[in-house]
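Hello,

Our lab assistant flagged a job as stuck in the queue for most of the afternoon. It eventually completed. Since we weren't sure the result was trustworthy after the delay, we are filing this so someone can double-check. Below is the sequence as submitted and the structure that was eventually returned. Let us know if re-running is recommended.
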Amino acid sequence: MKQAVKQKVSKNKIDKTSLEQKKAISKSKNKVEDRKSKGIKKNVNQKKLENASTELLKEKPKKTKKKKGLLIGVVICVLLDLGAFLCLFLAYGPVSYFRDLLITTAMTTKSHKYLARTIYNEKIIEKVINSNYVVDIKENTNVDDIQIGSSNGMTEYDSIYEEQILKRNPEDLYKMIPLEGDGYKGYLVAVYDPSRISLVASRYYGNWGQYLAEIAKQHKAKVGINASGFDDTNEVGNGARASGIFIKDRKVIEGNPYAPAKLIGFNQEHVLMLMNATANEAIKEGMVDAVEFGPFLIVNGKPAEIKGNGGWGISSRTAIAQRKDGIVLFLVIDGRQPGYSMGTNIGEITKIFLRYKAYNAANLDGGASSSLNIEGKLVSKPCAVSPKGERPIPNAWIVK
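-- returned structure --
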């Protein structure tokens, strides 16, 4: 019996020990699970922190972009305001140069007068026009002053301009001289035999004009420039008819033969005549071919008096002149093309002619009509809306 009791006590001890071991194992498991749980929570929290940091990093460029966009917007607004202020200052400020330039340039075009009228009222426009003009020369050409061929054989020159004109091969009919000045590019053509110059009309005269290239090709011209202005009804003219007087072979093709006009043409001795006369009077004086245009720039060696910018603004130009030795000068200046050539004013083309010793000179139709053709090729860069920039014209001065 004692032995049975001992065994029972021993068993209870073992059971108690086992229970304690189980409890210890359970606690150990719980600790491990707690650690795992804490580790998981720590990882989750760490991931949350990482995600939050990433989102913050993503948000920063957005804010930076917004700030940059806002800054750019402010800069653009400031620039627009400054631009508007500058335009208003130039248009209405105390310095009249820009105002005069804009008005005189726009008002002497056939299709862009609205540019001046949009900004200024008629009173301001009239005031500007009355302040910028060429004083009308009443004197006519003295044909006896022109001695054709008097400079032939000269080998000494008193200026670089004289050398450019006179230094040539004896057989040369003409010589082209490129020009470049303040804001413009163009060409001066010296024609050594004025008897080779004639005035020709568009093949379709009265219905529509032709490009200078077509007229030159039709007449096998060595050199050609535009001549008359033309009627531009509702500012959509097609060059069909010359504006003012047009005389061809002593016959009045266009215009009132009894009305006084500023006539530019050649007589039978091939002298360039600038006349304040009717067409009938000019024909009686010997004029063979002529157009009506102006202003006259130089008459009998005396340049016109120019007030302000001359009243014609800055644009493409075509003009004609003759020296005392009979050499005829064709002048074409490209214009209305920013970055290449904006054109020039009446005062500047007068100065060009004086440099090259023009004795009589006159302005011809300019703007989109201005063009120069040499040996069948368009040399100048006209500014009309067409594949090559040319505009249909009613007639042209050519060299054959």
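-- support follow-up --
The delay was a queue issue, not a problem with the job. The result is valid. Residues 95-131 form one domain. The CA atoms of residues 12 and 18 lie 10 Å apart.
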